[in-house]
Amino acid sequence: MRSISFAISIIFSLCNIYGQTGKPKLTISHLTGDFYIYTTYNFYKGNQVPANGMYLVTDQGVILFDTPWDTTQFQPLLDSIKLKHNKGVVLCIATHFHNDRTAGLEYYRSQRIKTYTTVLTNELCKRNNMKRAEFLMSKDTVFNVGRYSFEVYYPGQGHTADNIVIWFKNERILYGSCLIKSVGDDDLGYLGDANEAEYAGTIKKVMQKCRQPKFVIVGHGDWTSINSLEHTLIMAQQLQKKI
Length: 243
Fold this sequence. Notes:
This protein is of the alpha/beta class. It has seven helices and twelve strands. The strands form two sheets. A seven-stranded mixed β-sheet has the order 1-2-3-4-5-6-7. A five-stranded mixed β-sheet has the order 8-9-10-11-12, with no helix packed on it.
């Protein structure tokens, strides 16, 4: 009966993923090794915008970086991961307080997934009535899960006051989230919570810390180019000159 119930739940999840229009609400792409990029969608200024997250498959379970922007995709993402890898999500880290990163934190906590943000992100979530994590990081933190090690690094203010990046030094994978912009972007996007004066300096700190990345994952848009860091720096420097 359990297998039948699970199969039925997967069918309903797949229907939810693709929706009534036949357009996918959730896509999963292989990055390298045990790393995968998942993308969900929402509307910004009348346009449908993709939001990228990442997950890592380990022998101790799956680690999720950020949560889906589309609130209908919280469970379908878990179901898709379970179907694809036969593993559950055990840990979720959100990179800043905006709801394209944190919307699923309380739902995942209810599913007994350990959820993390920084103390600053938690304060901003509370102030802005956003979803909050169970566990808080008060400083840069190194996680060791299975054979993988990664660092949660706060480089300073940029896209938001609290934006962090995730650095896999051994694999040279930089998960930059919304701090780093796609090479297809012609501006820095939403700046309502940004520090325009410090943005360029923050990107320089990321470049000093995370040297010669093989992959740079951005929060929105095309994540396949390693030139996104340099592209973001140029736009941030241009912005700084206008202040």
